[in-house]
Write a structure and sequence with these properties.
single chain, 484 residues, mainly alpha, 2 domains, 20 helices
Length: 484
């Protein structure tokens, strides 16, 4: 139970940090929406989306590659891996410089005008700063320092709020001020994390051996990241083209209310890989029985918690959405089951099947994600014109589930973990169907029957032997004794 306890502890700590980050980040929203016009806010979000796309490309997959080889390398070579990744990151910044000369072109493509060229230049400056911030944050994961990670995360959010209010509200710098706030807060985190925590973790030596390893591992992940960006964003464009902004608003409300599952996913993603790779490379047996068991146990804990939360959000969505927002947004509740269960599928393909990473066959990620992106585009093309934002949600769910099943199947060719796939899929599908029934036919489900649905899904977790009463007892005793 040691690994499971460590997994739960790290997940709770990372989840706390990310939850606070999301909560603090929302603090700026009322200020920005009052200081910026709707069009200006749209410009800011478009720039942010563009920065995310460029970051995925120029990261060169180094975050994942560095994490993998850090745990694989011998103890006296770990600093070589970190330092080589740092130098490669700095080199990647030089590749961004030529884009400065095309800022007018990018402004024309994004906004139909060159008036936003300076803002495009600022976003190009933001990309390398964000990549450095990501690298410094990842070091806290490698060294199992979740509280330090949380400190840096909260510092980023608070400094962004302070700079944002000063530049946008007080000095009235508009969109430019908001972007400067993002650059300044990210740069502050880089400096404090590096000087205060991480500089001793480097030996500042460049290794061509590790550079080849890192780039070979990471390069396919660039295309995987871009494809992921495509099928995470394309549905909005389909809704605008085939429907209207009202449908986009309803879909966005559903996405916002699915955030609690995403918070769990982020926390699990930060804790699971570190624990698994530590055990895998420390375990002497070539069959890796402890690693296989740990992978199954930890995933089943995640699946149970995530599906129960998804069910809870779904069955009470039509009460929750109008209460938090207004009745005009109430229809957005109908898409919540598709999105929350899509998030569960997304984390499942992240957590299950480590075989691809262990075999260093990361090119599989590129073709699986690319094929899924094409599937998502096709499904949106077919479903959005017919069913609007509900069709977009269904397209997202199907795409993520297909990705999940294909990736686990491919990964099993390299390292067969032995997941109880039948029980996992049955639990997922039954909970999804019950949740969809409640939101599609709410008149059939009074309050007591909705509570019965949640209880039934909980019972199914025990009937399918995904968790056991002893697990609940152990977690509860750990919480009472503060061992977590």
């Amino acid at each position: 139970m040691g690994e499971r306890k460590a997994f739960i502890k790290d997940t709770l700590v990372y989840g706390l940090g990310n939850g606070l980050k999301k909560f603090i980040g929302l603090f700026l929203l009322p200020f920005y929406t009052r200081a910026l016009s709707v069009g200006e806010f749209g410009v800011l979000e478009t720039l942010g989306t563009t920065a995310a796309l460029l970051s995925g490309f120029f990261s060169m997959g180094l975050d994942s590659a560095c994490g993998f080889y850090y745990f694989k390398a011998a103890d006296n070579r770990k600093k070589d891996v970190l330092s080589t990744a740092l130098f490669l990151r700095i080199f990647s910044f030089l590749l961004i410089v030529p884009l400065f000369f095309f800022r007018d072109t990018f402004s024309q493509l994004l906004f139909g005008s060159i008036d936003y060229a300076f803002l495009v230049l600022m976003i190009l400056l933001l990309v390398p700063v964000n990549l450095l911030m990501s690298e410094q944050s990842h070091l806290f994961r490698y060294f199992r320092q979740p509280w330090s990670y949380n400190l840096i995360t909260i510092l980023k959010s608070l400094s962004n709020i302070g700079l944002g209010i000063t530049l946008v509200i007080v000095l009235k710098k508009g969109v430019e001020g908001a972007v400067w706030a993002r650059i300044g807060s990210s740069l502050l985190v880089v400096v404090i994390a590096f000087v205060g925590f991480n500089y001793r973790k480097y030996n500042f030596k460049f290794s061509f051996y590790w550079a080849r390893k890192l780039l070979k591992y990471g390069f396919p992940l660039i295309w995987s990241g871009i494809a992921t960006w495509v099928f995470n964003s394309s549905d909005r464009y389909f809704l605008v083209h085939y429907s209207d902004l009202h449908e986009v608003g309803l879909y966005s409300i559903g996405a916002i209310f699915s955030q609690p599952v995403l918070l769990i996913n982020m926390a699990v993603q930060m804790s699971f890989a570190v624990l698994f790779f530590q055990l895998y490379y420390a375990e002497k047996s070539p069959e890796k029985p402890q690693s296989r068991k740990m992978a199954i146990d930890l995933y089943l804990v995640y699946l149970t918690v995530a599906v129960l939360l998804s069910t809870l959000l779904s069955v009470y969505a039509d009460f929750l959405v109008p209460f938090v927002t207004t009745p005009d947004y109430g229809a957005g509740a109908k898409v919540i089951p598709f999105l929350v269960f899509a998030h569960v599928a997304a984390q499942s393909f992240q957590t299950m099947g480590p075989g691809i990473s262990l075999a260093e066959k990361t090119w599989h990620y590129a073709w699986i994600t690319g094929a899924t992106a094409l599937l998502n585009l096709g499904l949106n093309f077919l479903m959005v014109p017919r069913w609007g934002f509900m069709g977009a949600g269904l397209a997202t769910l199907i795409s993520f589930v297909v990705y999940w099943q294909v990736k686990v199947w491919v990964a099993s060719k390299y390292f067969r973990v032995g997941y109880p796939v039948g029980r996992i899929n049955s639990f997922f599908i039954l909970a999804l169907l019950l949740s969809v029934m409640v939101v599609v036919w709410p008149q059939w489900f009074p309050g007591w029957l909705r509570a019965a649905v949640v209880i039934l899904v909980t019972v199914l977790a025990f009937l399918f032997k995904l968790i056991y009463p002893s697990d609940i007892k152990h977690i509860w005793e750990g919480i009472k004794s503060r061992r977590f």
